[in-house]
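Methods — Computational structure assignment.
A single polypeptide chain was analysed. Its primary sequence is given first, followed by the predicted tertiary structure written as structure tokens.
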Amino acid sequence: MEYIVVSLAALFISALTLFSGFGLGTLLMPVFAIFFPLEIAIASTAIVHLANNLLKVGLLGKKADRGAVLSFGIPGIVFALFGAYLLILLSDLAPVTRYSIDSKIFTVTPIKMVIAVLIFFFSLFDLLPYFEKVAFARKYLPLGGALSGFFGGLSGHQGALRSAFLVKAGLEKEAFIGTGVVCAVLVDLSRLGVYGLSIFSKGFETLSTQGGVELVTTATLAAFLGTYIGTRLIKKMTMSIIKQMVGGMLLLLAIALGIGWI
């Protein structure tokens, strides 16, 4: 069942991320979190995210604006390291509380609470019309790269911030997409270096015994297919209704995570 759920989610989400404000990591990570500890879910999602963005770079990376990539991407690399390191620190903290409903025990941990708050905040990007108008001038690209990199390293939430800072950078649609995917790859490479040294080294047994390696591979292939479909639909899709639905689902996921149900 997990293969079906994760694969369908990866395919659908990947098709949408080419032309939406949210990213693959934002939506796929909660699906992985249903089956794995949260820090492993974030790290596993990062692998799918990187592989999918490498495909996008092959398809659209030549359209990237070199100046924007340097201004945005270099701070993103640096601050992704800080975000990933904070994730590791949070994952080692003891649970805040435990409670039970009938015979089911739920655990609330610091990492779940922090990620829940972030999911709640980023869901507002899809739910509130105000955030559709939020954009920053090109001179703020280094700040945007730092923020996007930090939250990308911490929780995988980099797409919405990246879009907000790149949308006013004077880029054509193809250049906007190409620049975004190149910057996303830089952040992914940076944070995966930290994840590999800590999270995967400690959690590889969990991944292997629960079929996580196969699940990540399946999700990656499904995301590839979704990206291919998305490139065919870039000029045809409108996102307003879908974004509202996604925002609502993220809000529910944030609540479920924060109270320990996920």
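Note: Residues 2-258 form one domain.
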